[in-house]
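stage 2 :: seqdesign
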């Protein structure tokens, strides 16, 4: 079941995020950064984010057997310089590593896309680590394409690339 996240989901979102970072980014990000991740600090962030009104956008959670299986969080409009008022940004999409390959991430992205189609959005962007071939392939299967923009993850300096999806209704 995919639904809007609530403040009560903060702990589950934090647990998924920390587990997914440690599983997906080992060998991409410095090991110390991954080892120092704190579920408690992430939970504090998500409590603030989900409770506050200063974060325009929405967060979806996939719930299975009463727990958070994954989540997708967007900001509206994109924070990227020069992105324009009609570009949305996915800031996080993570799935519990024990549920990878089961369609949870695909369902979250599809629901986020459908929600954006109901608004005045032309496209949606996201950032992914350049060396994260698995993540880039996952997003490419959902229609995202590299747009040539590069950046760096602030805490680590690791290279990132931006991917973009034009928002057009799916053919029936």
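stage 2 :: out
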């Amino acid at each position: 079941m995919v639904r809007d996240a609530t403040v009560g989901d903060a702990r589950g979102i934090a647990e998924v995020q920390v587990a997914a970072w440690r599983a997906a980014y080992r060998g991409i990000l410095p090991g110390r950064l991954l080892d120092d991740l704190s579920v408690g600090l992430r939970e504090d962030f998500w409590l603030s984010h989900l409770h506050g009104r200063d974060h325009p956008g929405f967060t979806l959670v996939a719930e299975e057997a009463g727990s958070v299986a994954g989540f997708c969080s967007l900001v509206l409009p994109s924070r990227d310089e020069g992105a324009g008022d009609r570009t949305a940004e996915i800031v996080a999409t993570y799935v519990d590593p024990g549920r990878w390959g089961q369609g949870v991430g695909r369902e979250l992205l599809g629901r986020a896309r459908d929600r954006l189609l109901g608004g005045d959005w032309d496209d949606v962007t996201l950032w992914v680590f350049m060396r994260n071939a698995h993540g880039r392939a996952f997003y490419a299967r959902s229609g995202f394409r590299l747009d040539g923009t590069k950046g760096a993850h602030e805490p680590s300096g690791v290279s990132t690339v931006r991917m973009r999806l034009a928002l057009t209704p799916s053919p029936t």
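stage 3 :: structure notes
- The mean pLDDT is 94.
- Residues 114 and 171 are 13 Å apart (CA to CA).
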